[in-house]
Amino acid sequence: MPASPRRATLATVAASAGVSVATVSKVLNGRSDVAPATRSLVESLLREHDYMAPSPRRGPGANGAVAMCTVEVQFDSDLSAYSTEIVQGVVSAGAELGVGVVVSVRKTVDHPASWARDLVAAGRRALVAVTCEQLNDRQLRALSRVQLPLVVIDPLNLQHDQVTSIGSTNFAGGLAATQHLLSLGHRRIAYIGGPATATCNQARLHGYRAAMEAEGVPVPPGYTRFGRFRYQDGMDHGAAVLDLPEPPTAIFAGCDEVALGVMEAARARGLRVPEDLSIVGFDDTQIARMTSPPLTTVRQPLREMGGVALRTALRLADGEKIDSHHVELATELIVRASTADVACAEHA
Predict the structure, then answer these.
(1) Strand, coil or helix: 333
(2) Distance from C-alpha of 39 to C-alpha of 57, rounded to nearest angstrom
(3) Residues 180-198: tens digit of each pLDDT
(4) 226 and 123, same structural domain?
(5) β-pair partners for 72
(6) Which residues form a coiled coil (predicted)?
(7) Which of 342, 345, 296 is nearest to 176 (CA)?
(8) Lower CB density within 10 Å: C or N end of the chain?
């Protein structure tokens, strides 16, 4: 994150107002024993200096217990099965550490400075942001100014090398998913992913292409499509590739939710999974086990990612140095019943 400017202190404001630090403290605490004119002057200077009280620190409480602190987990889109897994991981780690977790959805940040100040004023020790579309310079500077540590989980885009992030081995996952389909004899394999510019989507796509190229299998035009990591996108793009003159016999979807949309597109065309079409997802959320048939997918250790993000955020809040600004946890292919030998699709 960008270097933070020196934050104004009570002494700074007191010197500007020509009053004591105690008087400024009384104004901040709403005490009544301050003259109206003095109160007005101090409040004006607090705003002018953009003063923000330091964020609360963990410390010994009653009987030596660790005082509760809170970390905010913020999403920039509606919650999904993927989000639930992340939240579960953060909450479980928070329970182990005696840390409170607040979950919020904020789709836009119109006033970064106010947003950052409000987080600190609410007592947040750190911010964990999930699948952020982007974190612009104004937002990063605002967090830095109030000295609020940030950890991003599975970022769609990372503009700054110094932003701490937790992800998974997306390339290896894409490679494993495609190799699995190739091992079943499929050669007409399509990829339906998320946003084209998203870092995680690009890595999964590169894994898919690497596997195809290693087998000398060409990727026909129209076999790679991008949208959002949403069910409706899976339906729409699934329909598009299945309506091609030479449709695929297998589809690798960039997430489980997209895979479910592809399944529905196949069902609407009278296609059976896996007899007529094999499908692989990505994430291994609960819905992967609830589909009919159960979904073959690449497991992202989402709960573990949430736990690592929380622990990393607390280390940053305590002023510790971390070994790496980006950590990737291993993915794993989970084979279930949505994939089958290509002979099923070609001779059904």
Answers:
(1) strand
(2) 28
(3) 999 999 999 999 999 998 8
(4) no
(5) 102, 127
(6) none
(7) 296
(8) C
Mean pLDDT of the chain: 88
**Distance separating the N- and C-terminal Cα atoms of the chain:** 56
Bond preceding residue 293 cis, omega within 30 of 0: yes
Measured distance CA(333)–CA(276) in Å, rounded:
22
129 and 135 Cβ atoms separated by less than 8 Å? yes
Contact 283/303 with Cβ under 8 angstroms? no
DSSP state, residue 106: -
Q: Are residues 177 and 290 in the same domain?
A: yes
Tokens of 258: 């997209």
Contact 212, 183 (CB under 8 A): no
Structure tokens that stand for 233 in this block? 């996108």
Determine the 3-state secondary structure of 168 from DSSP. Answer: strand
Q: Which domain holds residue 17?
A: 10-48
Pairing of strands 150-153, 164-168: parallel
Tell whether 161 and 180 lie within a shared domain. no
Q: Are residues 101 and 33 part of one domain?
A: no
Look-up: residue for tokens 């069910």? 231
- Count how many domains the chain has: 3
3-class state of residue 99 by DSSP: strand
Q: What is the CA radius of gyration of the chain?
A: 25
Specify the pLDDT at position 272. 97
Would you tell me the crossing angle of helices 112-121 and 137-145 to the nearest 10 degrees?
Answer: 30
pTM: 0.79
Work out the percent of the chain whose per-residue pLDDT is above 90: 66
In three-state secondary structure terms, 30 is coil
- Domain of 109: which CATH number? 3.40.50.2300
The pLDDT-based confidence of 252 (bands split at 50, 70, 90) is very high
The answer as to whether 39 is a domain residue is yes
The answer to whether residues 295 and 312 belong to one domain is no
Distances (CA, A) of 326 to 158, 217, 254, 308: 10, 33, 21, 11
